[in-house]
Structures are given as structure tokens and as C-alpha cells.
Amino acid sequence: MVVPALPRPQLDRLILGVFVIEALYLLTLSALEEGLARLAPALGDAFFMGNTAPGLLLQFASFGALALWTIWVARWLQGRSAHSFIGPVRVALRQGTRVFAALLLLFLAVECLPPYWSFDTLEAVRWAWWLPLLPLSLAGLMLQTGAEELLYRGYVQSQIAARMPSAWAWMIIPNILFAIAHWSSGADLVGNIQYVIWAFFFGLAASDLTARTGTLGAAIGFHMANNAYAFLFFGELGAPDSGLALMIFESVNLGADGTGGALPGADWVLSPALTVEVFMTVLMWGVARAALRR
């Protein structure tokens, strides 16, 4: 994946490219939000929140703009094709499928271990439309995760590796950008910092899988399995990104004792919850590597 980046490895081209991609993507989202606000306000609200199936599916579809702008800018500035970011397609598909399936089995195994879920606050299990929508939900997740991997691992990582072959450079720099992209203006400071830290380690794992395999397949499978677990199985009633969840729970903040109090250390950046999330990311990375060796 680095070879196609070698003819034009200049960092100024890459910096310009990232800036243009992000600017065009934000303009596209703004235009979409403005159009929805005028033509379909309810769908616009659902698109922003992701708390209905149409809204969340449209949110996933909007990442197609990120993929298209990445491909267009890379062709303009580096003369690269979309294929050069992905690697051999058949190999990428095989690797991605293996990683995705292995990680879903890991999540199932984790759910079978204590501490167990309490179903006292379960509001609904939405099999009736969850199953028919599952192919569309997975296609949307592939578009969402594929667009992000195309930008950060396919474009940025390979261009940096062409200019600075040190692993410190092409592992760290793309994932600083990836982590910053997960900062949310609406979240509290501690929660934002925790999310950024987690995203950085998650990105490192995806970058390592990309470097080891020479395709984007494993990284997309890794990212897609994580997001499928986050979006498609559990959600809180009316909460953001709950639109495609199978099981919907009451919107409560359960504490360690199940009483609704805050978890110990919830106001610390380096909290027990963050430690568990990072450990889970490392475990996912290990399982993905094992699946790729089969």
C-alpha cells in the first residue's frame, strides 16, 4: 500500500489533502442538515441524534461523502486510485470477514461471562424489524467504518509511511488525527478525553492490522465488528445512536451496585471504565491477529 504513495510523498500535499477532505466533508454534512431541516425536519432531528432507524441509516450513509472526497483528493494531489488504498480486493474481503466473524464470537463470549446484564429495565426487543433491516444496517456500518479506514489508514498512514518509514511516525500521527476526530463538542470534558484516549488505542490496533496484512480488510473488519456491537445490539430509550439497536433499555445511569449511582472513578480521566475499554481493545486486536493466522 506504500508503493503507490512513493511518487508524491510530500507532507505538504498530505496536510493540504487532509484539510480539503475535512472541509469538503463538513460542507457536505452542513448542506445535508440544512436540506433536511427545510424539507423533513423530523428526519433531520433523527439524523442528528441517530435515535430512529431511518435517522441512523442516513447518518451511516453520509459517510459515503467522506469516502468520495478522500478518493477525489488523493487522485488530485497524489495521483492515487481508490484501489491503491485497499490492496488486493479478494484478499481484503477474506481478511475482513475472518476478523469480523472472530470478533463477533469474542463479544458473544464476553456477554456470557459475569457480571450479567439485568433485564429489569428492558423496554423492548425489536426482532420484527431488526432482522429485516440487518443487511441494510451492516451495509451502512461497512460504509461508515470503511470511509474512516480509507482516510486514516488507507490514505494518511500510507502517505506518511512513504515519507517517514519509521513506525513511530505512521502509527502515531494518523491515530492522533483519528482520536481528535472523536472529540464531541456536546460531551463533558472528562468523557471527551476518555473517548479520545480510547480512539487512539483503537486506531493503533487498526494501523497495526493494516501494516501486517497489506490491505484495509482486517482494519475494516475490526472497526465494523466494534461498531456493530455498539450500534446494533443494545441501546437506551431515545438515546443518541439507538435507532438500530435490538434491545432497548430505560435511560438510566446504573452504578456498580445497580442503584443508579455513578461508577467509582467516573469523574477521573484514567477511570476503571476506561481501563476496561482499552483492555478490551487489546483483546480484540489479539483475537484479530489470531484469526488472520488461520
TrEMBL record:
The chain crosses the membrane at residues 14-32, 52-77, 98-117, 129-147, 167-184, 196-222, 229-249, 269-292. InterPro entries: Rce1/LyrA-like_dom (IPR003675). Pfam families: Rce1-like (PF02517). Residues 133-228 form the CAAX prenyl protease 2/Lysostaphin resistance protein A-like domain. Keywords: Hydrolase, Membrane, Metalloprotease, Protease, Transmembrane, Transmembrane helix. One of its GO terms (molecular function) is metallopeptidase activity. It comes from the Bacteria. GO terms for biological process: CAAX-box protein maturation; proteolysis. This is CPBP family intramembrane metalloprotease.
